[in-house]
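LAB NOTEBOOK - FOLDING QUEUE
OPERATOR: T.R.
BATCH SIZE: 2
PURPOSE: Compare the predicted structure-token outputs for two unrelated chains run back to back under identical settings.
PRIORITY: normal
REVIEWER: second-year student, initials M.K.

ITEM 1
FIELD SEQUENCE / FIELD STRUCTURE:
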Amino acid sequence: MMSDGALSQDEIDALLAGVDSSSMSGLMGGAPTATMTAPAGGAAFDKGALEKFFASTTPALSSNLAALTGASVTLQGPQVDSQSRDSFLGQLPDMVTVITANYTSGFPGEHMFILPEDSARAIAALMTKEDDIQLDDMAMSVIGEVVSQMVGTQITAMTDKTGNKSIVAASPAAANVPKATAALPAGDFAVMSYNLDLGDGLTHQMWEILGAAPAADISNGLGGGSSAPAAMSQGMPGMGMQMPGMQMPNMGGTMDMGAMNMGGMMGGGMGMPNMGMPNLGPTNVQPVQFPNLMQPRLGAHEAGNIGLIMDVSMEMTVELGRTRKLIKEILGMGEGTIIELDKLAGEPVDILVNHKLIAKGEVVVIDENFGVRVTEIVSPMERINDMGYN
């Protein structure tokens, strides 16, 4: 149907919303194009490319979460959108758990997960097998470990899809805070909304946030966009600039610069006559990328095999402190001798499994017995270093 030249209401709404004219091609009868979002003050990212990639990782994430929690866990989504701080905060409850896991290389920039307080408590309860759990430091450490496994799975898939072998994320840090204090990226950013089923009959929400820069870099790496230099080189093949009247010595005569097509410089050759040198063709120079030395993460299969050793007993000890003494001092000890340890009064005691440090705690008295309340879980990287795998 031919248009009478008047704009439809859909076209007017699109123009008022600041939509680029290329995205209106479907309204004007042209071919549809990919949806590119340009955040305020940031690079454009392809919502479709991000949504397709992160959706492809949800089955593996679901399996990992099920193995970690021992529950039937299903992650669905995500739906990707570009939002500002104010618009996103309007969707959140008053208290949220923010887990920051910024990308430090590969696609560097802001990266975090946000959970409603109730959802974070439900995940921590599944991990610790406690019903009435508080979102204290121990719970935050447990949730950080869950996100660490999720990020590891995503990075593995992202490396395979983009070929970028230098992708690294910082160790996740979790905190339960009022939503107004959440350190969200500046300007507009990519929001990926998931639905999380923890097997409790409730649908929990989870949001994954990417700053504008990493969102654009990742979507370009996935093939969702093209860089400006590549677009320019493909869009200007041979400008046909002529430089008449210029003469250059040419061995046995002169070379007319008017015969040189300067557009060849943009299209792959200068158009100069062959003076006996072989034509080697264009040289493709690329930077060398070395993989980072990272500890391997457990996949879904390996994490599931831990169930085979759940009934193996291990020695757990609590260490108040240590000291070193000469043999003559040890032989001279008797009843009433006071031994000074290397820990200060009130300092946390060490909790060891098979003589390897796994946590810290404080001494408590339960009826007439001593006990230890866990106050800190040692990070996986510290545990690996302590085991001598560095």
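ITEM 2
FIELD SEQUENCE / FIELD STRUCTURE:
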Amino acid sequence: MVGEALNSFVFDNPTKLLFGAGKLGELHQEKFPGRKALLLTSKGQSIYKNGSFDKTVEELKLAGIEYVHLAIVQENPRKEDCEEAGRFARENKCDFIVALGGGAVLDSSVAVAIMAANGGDLWDYVFGGTGKGKIAEHDPLPIVTIATSSGTGSEMNEWGVISKEDTHEKIGLGDVRCKPRIAVVDPVYMTTVPPKYTAFQGFDALFHNTEVMMSTSLNIMSEAIALSAIENIWKYLPKAVRDGKDLEAREHVAYASTMAGITMQLTSTTTQHSMEHAMSAYHRNLQHGAGLIMISREFAQFFIDKHAADGRFIKMARVMGYPESNDPQDFIRELVKLQEDCGVADLKMSDYGFSKDECMTLAICARETMGGLYPANPCEVTDEDVAGIFERSFR
């Protein structure tokens, strides 16, 4: 059982953050970590539609930076693509990476940075699952991140999540040397994200922060940041979903997502993320945020029923519309209402190809691949408990 936040912590983040409308237009003024960049993007069209690609290229040219472009990243990024991008960067003698896009691109940049400098097999550097748990011998390439969506917070930390399809593994990969040198979060380039994806990404950001609040390693700094982020998502995500061009709403949701990138450096997330990684490892068509939404109610209810973190759930409820709350259940009430307000309360696992007899398989996968998050839970959680949460979430 967990009580108040700890009063000791270590925070080390060298990333310079340019946050706010118009900040991408200031990138050329920054000191870049080299003269030639790999401009890493997804295979999709969103960066061309929102104008961020052309603006980024303009900024690189103004700064006198040579670049080569590789559009290779997919949703739930794959090991093989990251290895190919690493070879591409090495063959083109790139000094650093500019990761332009949503969470998949930002996550991939960590793996690409490691592979560009070290080669070999990416799973050599993965801890968990079938990974070999090696430390990269050579320093990864420096990274500059430009976020075009609000969800992962990866623009601010050294972590990415990569999939190995043949073994159904989706695992977090990180190296402290991969903390970005510069991060740009400009909501001007987020206004074209469709409502459904705005909601999925916003809930990913929400759960980063709610999981931090549940975590055994919560501290006085991460608690303050997480509660601020939760309040901003509660107030502004429905507005961003209803009107994607509402720049004020986009900016506040972007703030909450970026703050999650900081809270996750101070405090670990929990098994909720392990569970979703298992879900999308077996069902690649599942968007990460959608999977988190599906299991979120029963995941929180498990700890509330055990009174494992009552005070923390009450604190979250108080910034989500219940300022006088003394009931942990108020958090669930407002979580459900927020999902309803954003049009995602009716998501069904069965619509993504899940069957109820998968629950224990997913539970075992969650522990084997992302077991490092289990100690952060506010009380013990067994494989049977996890399978039960999946079963109760199933529709």
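REVIEWER COMMENT (ITEM 2): The longest strand covers residues 66-73.
FOLLOW-UP: none requested
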